[in-house]
Design a protein that fits this description.
Blueprint: E1 4-8, H1 18-22, E2 28-30, E3 43-45, H2 56-60, E4 66-70
Antiparallel strand pairs: 1-4, 2-3
């Protein structure tokens, strides 16, 4: 069961992948099937059930795109 809920403001994500590197569970990746308003592939969580709500992704994001809620 997920310990956190991670949401991304996909419209302003620039696909820098800092969140991908920061995630200890390796459950974040760029969504190659989507392109946002800025022309980038936004990040998303591939398996929310594995999220431990550590917040590393949100801390690393230079554009404050990510919100982490503890469940």
């Amino acid at each position: 069961m997920a310990k956190g809920l991670v949401t991304f403001n996909v419209d302003i994500c620039k696909g820098c992948e800092l969140c991908v590197v920061a995630c200890p569970k390796k459950i974040i990746e760029l969504d190659k099937s989507k392109i946002n308003a800025k022309g980038f592939n936004p990040a998303h969580v591939v398996d929310m059930d594995e999220c431990i709500a550590c917040g590393n992704c949100a801390i690393m994001c230079p554009d404050s795109v990510i919100s982490v809620e503890r469940l």
